[in-house]
Amino acid sequence: MIRDDRFYAFIVARTSRSRAHIRRICVHKRWLKAGALMLVAVLGGLIYGFYGLTQQAQHLRIDRENQKLRAENEKQKQELQNLNNRVDAVEDASRKLAEMSGVQKDAPPARGQGGPARPIDSAAALAVLVAKTERLEREMHTYEELLRSRGMTPSIWPVSGKLETGLGPRRNPFGGRGFEYHEGQDIDAAYGTTVLVAASGTVTIAGWQRGYGNVVYVDHGAGLSTRYGHLSQIDVKIGQTVTRGQAIGLVGSTGRSTGPHLHYEVRINNQPVNPRQYLPGAER
Question: Which of 46, 55, 100, 176 has its CA 20 to 30 A from that of 131?
Answer without folding.
Answer: 100
